[in-house]
Amino acid sequence: MNRKATAVWQGSGKDGKGRLTTQSGVLSENPYGFNTRFENEPGTNPEELIAAAHAGCFTMALAFQLQGAGLTAREMRTEAVVTLEKDGDGFTITRSALTLSADIPGIDKAKFDELAGIAEKNCPVSKLLKAEITLAATLTSA
């Protein structure tokens, strides 16, 4: 299974503007740029999208862990905070901090902690944040 998203950028790093589109159409030409990434202007940014992906992936992974244990959550609410820090001349994403609040009938704290830990380690986005990244680059003008 493959899912894709497309970023289109025009202009310089600080003054340029970009648009993000996802295969599903949930994002369609959504604006992003320096101002949405570093100045909290309206629009999205890569870190916000990573945070949404990590929160969603982890929460779904935990739902499957619970299902395997014969349990069902009434509600799970996960916040992911992705941290972008200055790193020399650039920036580095240094962490994704997950905070979970869950209403799960019939589970004790030890089992809850165990299943949440398994979900955090095994959700595909957690694995991606530790994965090898590949790049195929083509220059269309010289």
TrEMBL record:
Coiled-coil spans are none
Q: Which Gene3D superfamilies match?
A: 3.30.300.20
In which domain of life is the source organism classified? Bacteria
InterPro entries, A to Z: KH_dom-like_a/b (IPR015946), OsmC/Ohr_fam (IPR003718), OsmC/Ohrsf (IPR036102), OsmC_Ohr_Peroxiredoxin (IPR052707), Peroxiredoxin_OsmC (IPR019904)
Please give the residue ranges the record annotates as the region Disordered. Answer: 1-26
List the protein's name: Peroxiredoxin OsmC
What is the native source organism of this protein? Methylobacterium crusticola
